[in-house]
Amino acid sequence: MISVSFALLIAAIFLSATLQAGTGFGFSVLATPLLLFFYPVPVAIQLNMFLSLLLSAGMFSQVKGHLDRTLLRRMIIAGVLALPLGIPLAGLDRNVMRLMVGCLLLALTLLLIVGPRVARSRPLDYVAGGLSAMMTTALGMPGPPLLVYLAGTDTEKAKVRAAALSFFIFIYTAGLALHGAWYGMSREVWKGTVILLPAVAAGMYAGQRLFHRISPRIFRAILHGVLAATAIGTLSQIR
Asked: Choosing a second label site near 148 at 20 to 30 A (CA), which of 88, 104, 114, 124?
């Protein structure tokens, strides 16, 4: 029998997948803190990367028409160089990891709400890709730096979703390979993927149907709310 707490995890995975399918962001931001509650840090990170990769790949055909290939190429170049930098951080104590995630998300939320708007540039494209890559192998969460950057440049929501999901396909594939080589990959990762994949698939379907009904204003409000709520929830789990 599935426990109440694990049933809540499945529900949260569904909501996370719905959010990511509708906005391009949100799965790892919501899912990682919850997975850290049930699994050791390396397992939680790998499980999140597996599910996020499957979700992003499943949606690629829906977003490729809005893809900025120059932005994607720059982020991938920076990502290749930065991916190894986050590997050692994934071995930190779980409470230390929760503190890092919670503080980071709070800071990023404030940046999104009060931060100045910036113009897109080649150097910032590289910085966003590099930071996202490092956070992938460290926390399994590449989205926040990319989210802050693209939201700060007032990029339209369709291009935000396309850039994020396309980059995630690359970064999660490379990140999983590095993570597995460094920490190994346990049976828990495969078992968790099988159990949670139906919730991801259902959320992907729901999010795709909601995408065209989300206005830019609501889009931003959702992103701010997700980041803030997840940060507070993550910090509250520290023991």
From this structure: 88
Cβ neighbours for 6, distance < 8 A, ≥ 6 positions apart: 38
Residue 62 has which token pair?
């829906």
Q: What is the pLDDT of residues 171-198, one digit of tens each?
A: 888 888 888 888 788 888 888 888 898 9
User: pLDDT grade, residue 2 (50/70/90)?
Assistant: low
Token pair 């379907």 is found at 205
Asked whether the CA dihedral 50, 56, 59, 64 is positive or negative, the reply is negative
- Domain count of the chain? 1
What H or E segment, with its residue span, contains residue 94? helix 94-114
| Domain span holding position 216 | 4-236
Rounded distance, CA 222 to CA 208, Å? 16
The separation between CA 44 and the C-alpha centre of its own chain, rounded to angstroms, equals 13
